[in-house]
Structure formats: structure tokens, C-alpha cells
Request: fold
Amino acid sequence: MKVCKFGGTSMATTQSILQVKSIIDRDPERKFIVVSAPGKRFSNDVKITDMLYAAYDEKVAFGTCKSSMKVIRERFLGLCEELGLDIDMNKYLDEVEEGIINSTSSDYAASRGEYLSAIVVSAVLGFKMIDAGDIIKFNNNGIFDAELTNDLVKKYADYTDGIVIPGFYGRMPDKTIKTFTRGGSDFTGAIIARGIGARIYENWTDVNGFMVTDPRIVENPKHISVLSYEELRELSYMGAGVLHPDSIFPVQIDNIPINIRNTFDPENEGTMIMDNTAGYVLPVVTGIAGRKGNTTILIKKAMMNGELGFCRKVLTVLERHGISVEHIPTGIDTMGIVLSDAGLKNADEEKIISDIRGMVNPDFIKISHSLALIAVVGHGMVNQLGTAAKIFTALYEAGVNIRMIDQGSSELNIIVGVEEKDYNASIKAIYNAFFG
Ligand code: ASP
Reply:
């Protein structure tokens, strides 16, 4: 069997939903369908999920969410009418509106786009709908409970009549709805694929899979036909936006391949993501991804390397401030810490620096902003001499000053930090060095 997850653009219009139906009708193995909330229909349209967050904000501010719900209502009622569905959508929309009024966090509201989408799609396909809250479970601390969930999903493994499951959310033991992070329906799809023992997890989106790099920066970059799970994780964590970075974890356990496909170009084979890439000719560099918005803290201290517990003490300060660390490039007497600006948003930077001073008494400490990170990812690097040299030469020739270098211990990637203003030029230079 196949698990098929359809993203927001596939759910956005009557035509796209009918296209989804034709994709499912074409293959009798496509019986487990996970859906996102309707996404954008055109570039400045608003996703249903964002409207639902706005509905929650409206209820917090004014005690009602009528005006946000009006637009959401119109969208779903319009879909039902155009698709000729005989379902009482108003009843579900009333239930959602009331639920938002009574909820104490935005998760319930945010999850309703997927819930309503699943109602529509199950009616279109004539498949049974299973509420994600009944099978996707979180513990009391809000942590996803993988094993309990897997046991619950497993029960449907032999179900062959077709099931539709809303993505993005599950339920806590006290019945409260909890969502994954944004884009989390990809993760739901992977959970279902593991639970039912799928042969393949098809993730249907609006592009033909992964490209070597961001097409907004490099015109017409090469397409990636095969990626390993680890490469995917590195690329998506670093900003390649096609798939949620956590999606590999459930499927990797049982080696289930993920196939990224395009709803609007269903004949295209897309990108395969799997463990066993034997038989494929793999390039040295598979992909180049990156993201702006990082901060570095540089710490220097003579004879740091001999000082027991130095790194631990610095990291303890960050932990106390609730800051998670992205990278830690170190030298003999220097320690660099790369943090994401988003993670630092509510932090008191001056206090962090003075706490580090108090803890390890460094000779020098400096915090700098506007760092862009670029990851050059590929399994082939391990056995290939000169990959790093090629990257650094390309950047040198493009006149880019490298502010940080970090090579993951698996030799799967080389990460460079550059000024944000040099970001596009760096991506182009590295791409041309390997693929130009
Ligand atoms: N609808 C949610 C979002 O916009 C989840 C998803 O589409 O995967 O993030």
C-alpha cells in the first residue's frame, strides 16, 4: 500500500481536489490519504491555516471570531458547492467556530483546516475519515508519543477501502488538540506510512521534488532524482522547503522510501528519498541549501583547550536562557556558537554575554548578527578529495569573505557562514563550481 500526503496547494481549489482524485483513482495502492489545509490559490492569497490563527487572535482580542470565520466559511462552502458534495458543511463550521471560542491555545484553531479538508476529501473520494486526534498522540508534556501512535495506526494496516486522515495535529491525554510545527502534515504522512507498513510514502506537492538549490537564486537548477534520508534532513533543516525536516524519522525506522511528487505534473517521477541508494550514480554534492538570520558568539581564551568543562560551562549559560544551539565550530583557543535569530527573539543578549563572562572569564567575547549559513550536502564528499577546496575557491573568486566553517563529523556536509549580503552570490558561486 501507499500513503499519499497532499499539501496545501493540492487542496486549494476545486480543480486541484479533482486532480487529487484522479491521481488516487489511477493507482489502487493509494488507499491512505493524508491532507493539509487548503493553501494559497494565487501568490498573495492567505492559507486557511493562517486565517485560523487569525481567528484565534480575534477571539482573544474580542471574544468572537466571526469576522475571520466568515472568510473561512466562504472558502469551504464554495468548495463543497463546486464539488457538488452533499455534506452539511455549515454544521462542521459552526462546531469549529464554537471550538475556537472555547479553546485556550491556538492549536485547536490551527488544526481545523486539516480537519475540514479531510471531511471534504473523504466525501469526494468516498473514503472513510479517521480523525487524527484518535490515532496521533502526544504525552502530558506535549511530546509526540511515537510508540502509542504507531500501535493505534497499525490497527488500520489491513484496511483496504480507503482512509483519509487530516495532517498536522493529534491529541494529548486530556483530549486537548496539539499541532506539530508548521508544515507538520508531512510528518503525519510519515507516521501513517510507518504505522501501516507502507511500501512507499508519496508526498504530493506543487513542485517536481528537490532541486540542487533554490531556483529563486539560481536559474533552472538541476533536479535531484535521489537523496538519502540524511541528505534530506540536512537540506530541509537548512532551508530547502519542500518537506518538513522531521519527516524522515518515522519512515527511516522501517526503510520506507519517500517519493516527492507534483500534483500538477503527475507523470514526473519527482525525487526519491531512501536509505538504499545502491545502483544510482550519486554526485559528490547532492544539494546546496542555506538560510539567513543567524547570530554568532565568538569566545577566545588562551589555553582554552586545556580547561576542563569550558564548552560545557558556556553551553550551560545558553541552556539556562532557553537557547538552542545550531553549530559549534571550535579552534584550539576559540569557541564559536551559532544561534538562529528566531531562537534568540525574546532573549536578553547582554545578560547572556555577561553570564558567559562570569562563567568562563574569556579574553574576548563578541556577538555578531546577520550571518547566513550555507550547507553543501552530499554523501559523495567522504571519498572525494578537494571538495572543500572547490567551495572555498569558488567563494574567494566571488569576492565573498567566509566568516565561519563547520564540517559535520559525518562528512556529509560542509557549512559555511557568510555575511547575509553575500548569500545569493555565494550560493551561485558554489552551484557553478559543482554543476556549472
Ligand atoms: N497547514 C499547516 C501549515 O500551513 C500544516 C501543513 O500544511 O502541513 O503549516
About this structure: The chain has two domains: 2-267, 287-435.
